[in-house]
Amino acid sequence: MNSKRKGSAGERELAEILRSHGYDSHRNNQRYVSGLENPDITLPGVHVEVKRSEALRLYDALTQAVHDANGKALPAVMHRKNHSPWVVIMRLDDWMLIFKEWELLRNAKIVLRG
Length: 114
Description:
CATH class: Alpha Beta
Order of helices and strands: HEEHEEH
């Protein structure tokens, strides 16, 4: 499978997974127009750069996501190689923002339950 077809198949696969989790996610039709603010996959508040390859140049992919997010969304690289699960790669500071929100929500639910 050539890399462009593999990338497109990866985008479709990931969009379907995100939809199965309740997100109205789809491939971005504008993805071949200037990368700024044109994520591969739509996901609220996140600039998703999809990589479907055996060897990922991690920092190059993350740099692309950060640049293309243009400070308007959390940049994330979602990657999968053959016969492996999808992974999400983010800067630690961005991940900490998400984790702190999750922790606040979890603690609020514990307090409410008493």
